């Protein structure tokens, strides 16, 4: 199987060029919440919550110029960390920085948050941290209790943005609710944890649990093609994978496969880490592809809004070919993304005369299907 997968290292026979090539790559710059609250929140663009409205790029700060970044390879050794810190005895991390990483016309605010753990809370790519926001709530029995844990997918590799294994990064969308009746935000319905994190100042303490999760771990074989499908802040684990593939010098796990990212957001200003992906594409054009679904700027083949399933469907033959060859497919984002994707895949299976249920079950049985939605 490894040899079969290795044939997809650079080019796949019949694989059409990505629509990403030639597109502008401007840097326009728990409740289970890998990167956002589980509830659906309505937000209004153009609101400054204290971080300004300008997009802060990250590639210039956390991608080494001239090649891959050396990393402490001892973090490749040993068993996978799991539930090192629990609710009753959490770890206290410290916020290093909080930066807005979307443009002024994005639908809401998303922040890039670096948290220092000093190497005491190691993790693997695809895992999550739990965050316990400060304060208390009144439970269903009328008792005042601490807030519960919210889970956030980690947006950096185990080495962190500084490549030293001392930090982790979260990608957090501020959860707010715009009340059309009052023409103002409803403070009662805002996300407690996301607002705490987005408002945090350098040096602020953060109570953390975990790391948790095994569903989104990368394949053991670095020659395996990886297809990533993300909406919004579901980009978090995908960023970690891409940095491991193309940014860091992990000599014991040098990636040889094809990495293909499908990213769905509302508009160009809402793209996340576009500058980093642009740099990786420039350095590894034969191994990395990116295709965006911009629902408020693009139209699908039927003339409707371009959603993530529509963009994947444009490349259905290539995607199925890769999966048949052993590729792993990862999904992360709001749970509302999955019905459309599954319906689209079922339709493609019908076109191809493939039994959809058996096809999907086979992917799951072989460990090629990875889903984390919230």
Low-confidence stretches: 1-29, 34-41
Shape, per Cα inertia axes: globular
> How many individual helices?
9
Q: What value does the Rg take, in angstroms?
A: 20 Å
Oligomeric grouping of the chains: single chain
Question: How does the SSE layout of this entry go?
Answer:
Elements (H helix, E strand, L loop, with lengths): L1 H5 L52 H4 L6 E2 L20 E10 L9 E7 L11 E5 L3 E3 L5 E3 L3 E4 L13 E7 L4 E2 L4 E2 L6 H8 L5 E8 L13 E6 L3 H12 L1 E2 L9 E7 L8 H10 L4 E7 L13 H7 L1 H9 L3 E6 L3 H16 L3 H10 L3 E5 L1
Helix pairs in contact: 6-8
Could you explain how this protein is built, in words?
With 374 residues, the chain is of the alpha/beta class. Helix content is 22%, strand content 23%. It is built from 9 helices and 17 strands. It has helices at residues 2-6, 59-62, 192-199, 235-246, 274-283, 308-314, 316-324, 337-352, 356-365; strands spanning 69-70, 91-100, 110-116, 128-132, 136-138, 144-146, 150-153, 167-173, 178-179, 184-185, 205-212, 226-231, 248-249, 259-265, 288-294, 328-333, 369-373. The strands form 5 sheets. Strands 7-4-11-2-3-8 form a 6-stranded antiparallel β-sheet. A hairpin with a 5-residue loop joins strand 5 (136-138) and strand 6 (144-146). Helix 6 (308-314) packs parallel to helix 8 (337-352). The protein is globular. Residues 1-29 and 34-41 have low confidence and may be disordered.
Which properties best describe this structure?
six-stranded antiparallel sheet; five-stranded parallel sheet; 17 strands; alpha/beta; 374 residues; disordered N terminus
């Amino acid at each position: 199987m490894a040899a079969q997968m290795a044939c997809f290292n650079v080019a796949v026979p019949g694989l059409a060029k990505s629509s990403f090539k030639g597109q502008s790559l401007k840097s326009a710059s728990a409740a289970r919440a890998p990167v956002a609250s589980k509830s659906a929140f309505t937000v209004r663009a153009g609101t400054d919550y204290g971080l300004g409205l300008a997009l802060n790029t990250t590639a210039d700060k956390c991608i080494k110029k001239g090649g891959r970044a050396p990393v402490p390879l001892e973090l490749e050794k040993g068993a996978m960390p799991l539930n090192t810190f629990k609710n009753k005895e959490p770890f206290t991390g410290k916020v290093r920085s909080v930066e807005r990483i979307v443009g002024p016309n994005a639908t809401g605010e998303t922040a890039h948050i670096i948290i220092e753990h000093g190497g005491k809370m190691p993790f693997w790519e695809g895992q999550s941290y739990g965050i316990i926001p400060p304060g208390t709530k009144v439970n269903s029995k009328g008792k005042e209790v601490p807030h519960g844990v919210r889970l956030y997918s980690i947006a950096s590799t185990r080495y962190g943005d500084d490549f030293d294994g001392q930090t982790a990064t979260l990608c957090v969308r501020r959860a707010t609710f715009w009340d059309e009746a009052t023409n103002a935000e409803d403070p009662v319905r805002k996300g407690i944890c996301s607002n705490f994190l987005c408002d945090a100042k350098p040096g602020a303490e953060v109570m953390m649990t975990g790391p948790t999760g095994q569903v989104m771990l990368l394949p053991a074989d670095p020659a395996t093609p990886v297809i990533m499908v993300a909406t919004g802040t579901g980009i978090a684990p995908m960023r970690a994978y891409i940095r491991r593939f193309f940014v860091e010098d992990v000599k014991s796990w040098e990636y040889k496969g094809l990495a293909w990212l499908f990213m769905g957001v509302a508009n160009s200003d809402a793209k996340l880490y576009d500058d980093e992906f642009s740099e990786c594409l420039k350095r590894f054009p034969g191994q990395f592809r990116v295709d965006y679904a911009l629902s408020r700027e693009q139209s699908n083949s039927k003339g409707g809004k371009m959603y993530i399933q529509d963009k994947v469907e444009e490349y259905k033959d290539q995607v199925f070919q890769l999966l048949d060859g052993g590729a792993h497919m990862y999904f992360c984002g709001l749970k509302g993304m999955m019905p459309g994707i599954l319906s689209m895949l079922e339709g493609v299976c019908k076109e191809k005369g493939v039994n959809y249920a058996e096809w999907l079950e086979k992917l799951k049985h072989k460990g090629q299907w990875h889903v984390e939605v919230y």
